[in-house]
Amino acid sequence: MLFSRASLLFALSTVVAAAPYEKRWFGGWGQGSNSDVLESFLDFGKRHSWRGRTTTQGQCNVAAVQMPQAPKPLPPPSEGLTLYHVAVGRGTQNYTCDLSNSTAIPIAAGAVASLFNVTCMSADSPTLLSAIPNIALELPTPTATDATSPINRDISGHHYFTDLTTAFFNLDTTLSTYGAGGFKKTNSSDAPSTAVKGQHGQGYGSVPWLKLQAKTKDECVFQEVYRINTAGGNPPKTCQGQQAAFQIEYSAEYWFYS
Ligand SMILES: *[C@@H]1O[C@H](CO)[C@@H](O)[C@H](O)[C@H]1NC(C)=O
Ligand SMILES: *[C@@H]1O[C@H](CO)[C@@H](O)[C@H](O)[C@H]1NC(C)=O
Ligand SMILES: *[C@@H]1O[C@H](CO)[C@@H](O)[C@H](O)[C@H]1NC(C)=O
Ligand SMILES: *[C@@H]1O[C@H](CO)[C@@H](O)[C@H](O)[C@H]1NC(C)=O
């Protein structure tokens, strides 16, 4: 869904108006009257006891949480697996172009993203969570060296590629150890037609929703990962005017099953 900045501010400020918060996501974007609301969005799920569903802080009951479906649904998690972790990813999709070929199209060359823990938000405020990738896309990615960035207290790990077909999820950090492993894509489904085109509503569309499976079964505590509610990340249709390597900003939710 395409949100204008004004409507996002409005929607969020009505929800979090009475909420205590700390600034979790800083950056130049949105410096102005309502910027504190946007800067605090990822903190939201942690601090609220919605209708008593959150038991203690940082713990929540995900047993009944339903993962959102693509218009053409991805296959469900395999029998016996349960929801383990939910993260918002913010980073770039990488592409390469063969500049010697005038009809070349961009080729996917991995992705890099920081992952932020929104597990409790998936249980306590699923509607707000589904808007987070669109919001995150408009905010800068805090880097690991931004020691002062409060959002780094919510970090659950990092996503990157170890080779062209191995999507790696490293959820082991100094804050928590949720596991790590290499995954391969097993299914893909187009993002809804209403998905954002890119930052500021400009771009080439949102990357597909995916199902991924652990490459080695026993390597990792989580076995299947979904990329859903994508925002941005698609490349241009042709390489005309592109560099040999370039990045497209994106955000998405990652749902981990173990
Ligand atoms: C992807 O999942 C859908 C729905 O379960 C299924 O119909 C389709 O065959 C799958 N595609 C691949 C490539 O496995
Ligand atoms: C962070 O992730 C863990 C594991 O999924 C979960 O138990 C915890 O409640 C999460 N914290 C928040 C604030 O969502
Ligand atoms: C140029 O790119 C097109 C589109 O990807 C491809 O079909 C074609 O084989 C490429 N030509 C060469 C010489 O690599
Ligand atoms: C993707 O681009 C980022 C930013 O330039 C870079 O740090 C990273 O190494 C690239 N990853 C891959 C797999 O090309």
Gist?
Residues 1-18 form the signal peptide. The chain is α+β, with helices and mostly antiparallel strands and 258 residues long.
Textual characterization of the structure:
The chain is of the alpha+beta class and 258 residues long. The chain has one domain (2-257). The chain is built from 5 helices and 8 strands. The protein has helices at 5-16, 35-39, 44-47, 119-124, 126-137, and strands spanning 83-96, 107-117, 155-163, 166-172, 177-189, 209-214, 224-232, 245-257. It has an 8-stranded antiparallel barrel with strand order 1-2-3-4-5-6-7-8. Residues 1-56 have low confidence and may be disordered. The site of one 2-acetamido-2-deoxy-beta-D-glucopyranose (NAG) has 7 residues, from strand 1 and strand 2.
